[in-house]
Amino acid sequence: MAALLLSLQLLPLVLFSPFLWAAVAFVAVAAGVAWRDRQTASAELPISSTRRRVLELCALLLMPALLLAGGEYYGSGRSPSPYEGEVLMALHGTMFIQAALAAWLVWRHRSRLWSTFLIAELGVWWGGATYVLANMAVTGNTL
User: Fold this and answer.
1) What pLDDT, in 10s, does the model give residues 102-114?
2) How much helix, strand and coil, in percent to the nearest 5, is found in the chain?
3) Alpha-carbon gap, residue 127 to 37, rounded angstroms
């Protein structure tokens, strides 16, 4: 629970992270392409599938939850791991998967583009905060 509160407190600081802005730009480009191709969206995805849409957008909570769990595991006063480089690469990969999932969801739900875009960007933003928190836990560096 403490890691969740700390990740929410890190949200303003994450705005200075270039990694976050790369993910935001990636999702924004996907939204631009989806906006250009929005006429075919109504034929591909039924509008009445609100429950499915909500469940798919809740998938954006999966990667931040994994990052928080990893941060809790490594931040519990353990000695430094000899595999720190591999763990940091896994953190980078997890954040990339979060951005790719957000871009795919924006494309998939392009019939309701702006609400999906907003939710996806908020998910990427919180994912960036949990990424910074997990990175601090793995390296032992804090603010």
Assistant:
1) 999 998 888 888 8
2) 85, 0, 15
3) 27
